[in-house]
Amino acid sequence: MKITPKTDIRIRKPAWLRRPLPKGPAYEEVRKLIRGGQLHTVCQEAKCPNQFECFSHHTATFLIMGGTCTRNCRFCNIKGGSPPALDPGEPLRVARAAEALKLRFVVVTSVTRDDLKDGGAGHFARTIHAIHDRIAEVKVEVLVPDFLGDRAALNTVLDAGPDVLNHNVETVARLYPRVRPEADYQRSLDLLAKVGAHDGGIPAKSGLMLGLGEKDDEIQRTLEDLFSHGVRLLTLGQYLQPSAGHLPVERFVPPEEFAAWRETALDLGFSEVAAGPFVRSSYHAKELYSQLKPGQSN
Backbone phi, then psi, for 177, in 5-degree steps? Predict the structure, then answer.
């Protein structure tokens, strides 16, 4: 695959990264519901460029266990520090908010909580159960941290019965020390492989950002690694620098290149791939899940 020349990041964002911000009563309704329920969303905390679109369509990705992360990834806008104690009422509030939004596909993620013995796995499980208890025939996708490789913690989440287990590798192995200094590429792959080994038949999903300085052969290797470790649902999106204190964008990847990588991944055997400049790990999650092929959950 031919590498597109680097875009000069000192100039304005390219045309394909400019979009109008939808507004309206649906957006305001979701925003007020989140605020009134004392909840967090990754849409707001991470300054996701899709939050206006998603809120306008009554969609949100719930961020549990507070808004402070125990790690300091160089790409992420969620603040690092010492998180507060877990809120035992949060799982029910998330379920009530999902019910009020009339959601039939709920995405739940969290900050990384290395301060907790189980990494917050029990809180994930309680949230999954609360949503299932509150909403009939709901599907739940969870986007989890690596739990420091703790298989028991992962099984706690899987035993709660999510419909998709998502864990993002985020970038290629070579860039981990710069992008994710407290994470480990192989540890993330091993976690994804354990999803397939669980007897629940829960599909594994992952994603990575482009534009951080990765090379084509590294992207190819990462896709192969993910597939060989059981991942069947994949997202590929453009890294956007949240602030001056975060890693700079090395390159703006054009839509046609994302489309080419999607075809490459599908040729490898992935069930479905969402790829594009604005794609994020939970973007159109329901649609991605609906394309899962029978027999390809692991």
Answer: -60, -30
